[in-house]
Design goal:
about 425 residues, about 25% helix, 11 helices, alpha/beta
Length: about 425
Amino acid sequence: MRTSRVWFTALLLPLLLPASHLDGQAHVRLGVDRLADSLPKILVDKRVGLITNHTGRDRAGTPTIDLLAARKDMKLVALFGPEHGIRGLASGRVDDSKDEKTGLPVYSLFGTTQKPTDAMLQNIDALVFDIQDVGVRQYTYLSTMGLAMQAAAEKRIPIVILDRPNPIGGRIVEGNIREPGMESFVGLYPIASRHGLTAGELALLYNKEFRIGADLHVIPLDGWKRTLWSDQIDLSWIKPSPNLPTFAGVINYPGTVFFEGTNLSEGRGSDNPFEQTGAPWLRAQEVADSMNARRLPGVRFIAVDFAVLPTARKFPGQTIHGVRMVVTDREIYRPIATTMRLIEMIRRLHPNDFQWRRSTASPGAAERYYFDTLTGSMRTRTAIESGTLDALLAEWDRDAQRFSETRKPYLLY
């Protein structure tokens, strides 16, 4: 079994904090910033492969690619890109390429393979991972991290995680634990849907709980606390992917991602993706009124019409009747439970129009709906159809509490 290490540098922070901190924002230094203080010995004079994208950059905005390429005490020899590619602009499958600035090969981990191959790692002594996640199991960046950890363990090379904040905080855990037999790229390991962990913390949990056995090293954050949301820290917001341009979308995303498993739009191609849902046939005001009558915590619903781009996957170029989730108190808002109840309501009011989307991305796709893949359960769809959702959500609350206990040994902050 390989070891896991967390690196804390001996350098002290200056007593004077940036002006933004004086305005009420917490001063946070990233793992990549701390890497600049002191390079871990396991990277010194090594040939390094970097798994990153456009979100991998330091406090000043300098890309991690440029920072590592400029170092004289190690040699950056290859780049690896996740879903949406190394620049975060791609949709669909991404091919291998060459980085124009550095001339380095860029291996896609969202093309013919999702896991680094032996050929990709042939001339690499160590891997470094630096990507901003959004704190949700279904978001594929940390599945990329988990598969890279597996590859590093098999190749017997170390992997270093440069930690970044969880943008929706580290206090709230929500949703079910992915069930056995439901493994996928949007559910690599059985963890809670909203896990409340940073990439470094989740890497530590993956390595021990699921026996990856990687020679894992985490360079932690300075100044981050579990109560902090992204807009409470003094770092510039970078949209993590093309369809999450706003922080409001990220707050809703733990729940609204599940609309992808239905024939409802999740707002892709609109000005507010993952903040709203709809369809040309939706009786939006009736749905909004019915949901507001339930008085769900921390959220209200408004009827809206929104247009989507001609390139949108659902209802391209059309104007959609929709419902937008307006968060009134994000500390008590539970987007996963809210979305499940909203799907239940829309299905009840539109029994002839609402449909589940069939999966086309995994073996056995003919027998599986994509909603099942996203929830990591074959029972959620049945609970919505049979009127037993309340009982299932109560079970999910117990799942979240169980995962909260499981994760405790791996909390760094």
